[in-house]
Amino acid sequence: ISVNILGRDFILPISSIRRFSWENFGINYVMMVDPNTLKDAPFTYVATAKTRPAQEAVIYRELYQKFPGASIVRMKEVLENALTLLGKISGAIDVMAAITIISGVLVLAGAIAAGHKSRIYDAAVLKVVGATRWDILKAYVIEFILLGILTGAVAILLGSLAAYVVITRVMEMPWQLPFDIPLVTVSGSILVTLVFGMVSIWLAMSVRPTHILRNQ
Known about the structure:
The protein has 216 residues and is mainly alpha-helical. The protein has helices spanning 56-66, 75-114, 116-128, 133-170, 180-205, 209-214, and strands spanning 2-5, 8-11. The chain has 6 helices and 2 strands; from the N terminus they run E-E-H-H-H-H-H-H.
């Protein structure tokens, strides 16, 4: 591999490949080179230290006295800034998720409302042929449960696909689907569908069959 250091190209043979993790904030480098290869290049020493908050001032004073040219970077402040940024990103994602959920609920409510007239007519016909309110209710409940399962399955499929692309391609992290997310998604979809559906069912069964059939 060719590496350019301060305008000078170095040809470095690859002798081994290693894995490293940035999660512990320790000292890690993408490449490790034999010191003799870069002995004439300028360099700096880097070290990490962990201490208690009460001892920070003492350690800073001693380091500056012994090493006046040293630069000290407090990782605590870096981490706090990173956490603040992540919190803002998480908040933005939550807002987008809430907007998406609200939009989905409105679309689902619109789909149920679109078929409200046909349910009124179907309920009237079923009453005429002898169906009881309980029979009609069971039929519509089954319909809305199936609609909720279908809606939840589509949401899981699209959401999982988007999450897989973002996590594996953008963030370059391993992806796995928690088992509780599909269960909560489908259960919530069924619940929302039943809530809107029960309103439609109640309105459909409250209309007299004679009034509906007379106008057909």
